[in-house]
Structure formats: C-alpha cells, structure tokens
Amino acid sequence: MNKPVTLTGYSLGARVIFKCLQYLAKTEQNAELVERVVLLGAPTIFYLALLPPAILQMVVGGFVNAFSTNDWTLGVVFRAKYV
C-alpha cells in the first residue's frame, strides 16, 4: 500500500518535482500517490490552469506554484533554458 506524500522543492528542485510528475502521469497506477505539491521559485513559470490534466490528476490535494516576477535569478535561469 502506498501512502500519499507531500513534495516540496525550491528552484531547480521544484523543476525536478515537475519532471517527476510528468513521468508519473505516464502510468495510471501512480494516481493519487502525491498528496500535495509546493513549488517555490521554479525556473519554469507556468499557470496551473495550463497544466495537462494528467499531471494534475497525480496530485490528490493542493498544488502551489509560488514565484516572484521580480526574482532576477529566476529570470536568468528561465531565459537560459528557453532561449
């Protein structure tokens, strides 16, 4: 029996959690494994409404993406990845 977990990540750790959710979404047997996700300063700025439903279905409880639009470091990492 799998117990739900809470995943919290800051900066690149938040990016790793997002990638893990994408991987988990590929298999239905992992549904409801993650209770809560908190991403802090992820170098990927996205809005929850734009996420694929398969990723959101992996999370039973809340999904928080906290970032500052004034974060200079986050802006540099984001541009370096997507330019």
Descriptive overview:
This protein has helices spanning 12-24, 53-57, 72-82, and strands spanning 5-10, 34-40, 63-66. By secondary structure, it is of the alpha/beta class. The protein has one domain. A three-stranded parallel sheet has the order 1-2-3, with helices on one face. β1 (5-10), α1 and β2 (34-40) form a beta-alpha-beta unit. The longest helix has 13 residues, at 12-24. The protein is elongated. The protein starts with a strand and ends with a helix.
Quickly list its features:
83 residues, alpha/beta, three-stranded parallel sheet, 3 helices, 3 strands
Question: What fraction, in percent, of the residue positions are helical?
Answer: 25-40%
How are helices and strands ordered from N to C?
A: EHEHEH
Q: Point out poorly predicted stretches.
A: none
Overall 3D geometry? elongated
Overall strand count:
3
**Structural class of the secondary structure composition?**
alpha/beta
The number of helices is 3
- Overall residue-averaged pLDDT value: 76
Largest sheet descriptor: 3 strands, parallel
Task: List the domain count as a whole number.
Answer: 1
Rg computed from alpha carbons, rounded to a whole number of angstroms = 13 Å
Q: How far is the N terminus from the C terminus?
A: 43 Å
Q: How much strand content do the residues show?
A: 15-25%
Strand order of the largest sheet: 1-2-3
